[in-house]
Write a structure and sequence with these properties.
The protein is of the alpha+beta class. It has 5 helices and 10 strands; from the N terminus they run αβαββββαβββββαα. The strands form 2 sheets. Strands 1, 3, 5, 6, 8, 9 and 10 form a 7-stranded mixed sheet that branches. Strands 2-4-7 form a 3-stranded antiparallel sheet, with no helix packed on it.
Length: about 220
Amino acid sequence: MFSISSTATTATLLLLCVTGVAVGLPSNTATHHQSQQAPDGVTNPNATVVFTDQTTNGSVARLNTATLSQGGFVAIHDTSLTTNNSTVGSVIGVSQQLSPGPHQDVVVPLYSVNGREFNESRLAGNGSLVAMTHFDSNDNGEFDFVESNGSVDGPYVEGTRVVTDSATLSVDPATDDAESGGVLGGIGPIVVGAALIVALAVLVGGAVVMYRRRNEGTE
């Protein structure tokens, strides 16, 4: 299901530059986003994103770094971005709102996007995805690009190219959420810490009981 044919690979190579930082769109589309999506008063907005090959449990994608001069979001697109030229319909994940400036180790949940419904909750198999940087052009803290059919929260553009990077994701269901940056990645240390506290309390309690019994036996 989630695989890339040789044709799709060729199309991806043609559309992605060697460093993987920009995807070419039709010139009228790129110009539209550049002129309509940049917030008022913004001059020369810029963005970068680094998205490298990784192993995931299929529910998240992880960005190495993302820098957005005016803040916004990073959306994850599947291969229909290049095979079908579907900029809106290819969105399968989006980051939380990112403040202006650099961000590291950004975890993007997949198959949870405002304006789209999915039949799956995880990637079905290995394949390539594209990370695309977006403005929060209406400044409401929500990613409205899909729901508005691309008229709001458009992508950052360099010249006539949208700022992106691509990566191959290897899906391993055994990969735990901590490695993938999922829910357990955040609560895992808390759970472990609580377990250690409980174990320590049991040991201390047992020692106190034994001490009391020994003292009672000598009286």
